[in-house]
Amino acid sequence: GENVEQHPSTLSVQEGDSAVIKCTYSDSASNYFPWYKQELGKRPQLIIDIRSNVGEKKDQRIAVTLNKTAKHFSLHITETQPEDSAVYFCAASKGGGSQGNLIFGKGTKLSVKP
Amino acid sequence: GAVVSQHPSWVICKSGTSVKIECRSLDFQATTMFWYRQFPKQSLMLMATSNEGSKATYEQGVEKDKFLINHASLTLSTLTVTSAHPEDSSFYICSATVITGGYGYTFGSGTRLTVV
Q1: Any B CB within 8 A of A57 CB
Q2: A9 — contact with chain B (CB < 8 Å)?
Q3: Distances, alpha carbon B90 to alpha carbons B24, B41, B107, in Å
Q4: How many CB atoms lie under 10 A from the CB of residue A101?
């Protein structure tokens, strides 16, 4: 089955700096790669996603890149703010429906220091 | 947007008792529901996948007789933790995909289970 590795497990940055979180996946059939932000005791919140037919996607301060050949994808957060502090999870899936269970990475705890 | 309502949000039960967690899709039909478990400071681990009207598929290491999943309708899936023990204490969360497929995953709000 799919295996998703995520690094680093913790990341501390100064406010205004950039943060990068990297993930690798094992199943070449995976074609959907979402990133989630989770605050303590709450549901994961989708912040950005990318499909396998796209190499990069950007939404304001957040961007995701995908390298299908190397089977890795990364989350980039620019101009970080204290409210970006949370745990971030990457995930991989083969798509919606019965084949589409999301497999999560182990998470990255991001701390943005004012 | 698609909403999944999960109840209860938290529950405390005695060891040996059973607890039922419900997830309802409010404004869409969920053909598939995924159940995850999350221990403190860990990731979401997939427990099982359920499709409406059929038996759930459990991940390796998850006891199907202990974690009973029912997906009797397109809007309701339940997870029952039977004979709960303290080690079952965790955050349980469901996620649904919409009937038309695509790439949408909608999460419930989660259930914090504490077994004493």
Answers
A1: no
A2: no
A3: 20, 11, 16
A4: 23
A99 touching B (Cβ < 8 Å): no
* 8 Å CB contact of B97 and A51: no
- pLDDT tens digits along A37-96: 999 889 999 999 998 888 999 999 999 999 999 999 999 999 999 999 999 999 999 864
Give pLDDT tens digits for B70-106.
988 889 999 999 999 999 999 999 998 765 545 578 8
CB atoms B103 and A96 under 8 Å = yes
The residue in chain B having the minimum alpha-carbon distance to the alpha carbon of residue A95 is: B103
Q: DSSP letter string over B12-33?
A: EE-TT--EEEEEEESSS-EEEE
Q: Which residue of A has its CA nearest to B5?
A: A43
Counting every residue, how long is chain A?
A: 114
Q: Which two tokens stand for residue B68?
A: 């009973």
